[in-house]
Amino acid sequence: MIHDSASYEANAHMLLSGLANTAILSALSAVAALLLGFVLTPALMAKHRTVLWAARGFVDGMRCVPFLLFAYIVYYGFPSFGVRLDNWTSGLLALTIYNAAYMAEILRGAWVAQPREPIEAGKAFGFSDVRLFAGSFCRRCCFRRVR
Fold first, then answer.
1. Distant-in-sequence, close-in-space partners of 40: CB < 8 Å, separation ≥ 6
2. Of 145, 143, 126, 125, the residue nearest 135 (C-alpha)
3. Are the C-beta atoms of residues 61 and 33 closer than 8 Å to each other?
4. How far does Cα 53 stand from its chain's mean position?
5. Rounded to whole angstroms, how far apart are CA atoms 56 and 58?
6. For residue 2, what are the contacts with CB-CB under 8 A and spacing of at least 6?
7. Are 40 and 59 in contact (CB under 8 A)?
8. In 10 A of CB 116, how many CB atoms?
9. How many Å separate Cα 134 from the centre of its chain?
10. Which of 50, 83, 88, 91 could disulfide-pair with 78, CB 3.0 to 4.6 Å?
11. Distance CA 132, CA 82 (A)
12. Do 134 and 114 touch, CB atoms closer than 8 A?
């Protein structure tokens, strides 16, 4: 056990820089994953089997792969295909893609748990597909007037 705090004090700027990078990377990837999840969720509920299977395969595949393995594939595997990314970009890409699968599954579950009345009201107002999906999560739309 190290009882000398001199090494911590000497490297405090590096520790704080790493903490700041981690916070920025986490915030950016969370926002990007949520946006990508919004795009992916309608594909998880698509009527076309090809689209549904592709989206379901992506989501299930990401949920079955441990994150560190996926991060290693992005960082060390992509250069074998000619795609070279720096540390920061590969971390952002890995976090975003991996968490987008979870966000899409969470949003799909939230959609399924919605009461049917607002959805039917939205269809009566002419909303369909993506507009209906986005409108149910944005409570400033016409659903509030129907109730």
1. 55, 58, 59, 100, 101, 103, 104
2. 143
3. no
4. 19
5. 5
6. none
7. yes
8. 7
9. 16
10. 83
11. 40
12. no
Residue matched to tokens 């949003």: 107
Report whether 121 contacts 114 (CB < 8 A): no
What are 19-52's pLDDT values in tens digits?
A: 999 999 999 999 999 999 999 998 998 888 999 9
The two tokens of residue 135 are 């409108």
The mean predicted confidence, pLDDT, of the chain is 84
Q: Using one digit for the tens of pLDDT, what is the confidence trace for 51-108?
A: 999 999 999 999 999 999 999 999 999 888 888 888 899 999 999 999 999 999 999 9
Q: How many angstroms separate the Cα of 1 from the Cα of each of 4, 9, 116?
A: 9, 17, 60
Q: What angle do CA 53, 79, 59 make, to 5 degrees?
A: 20
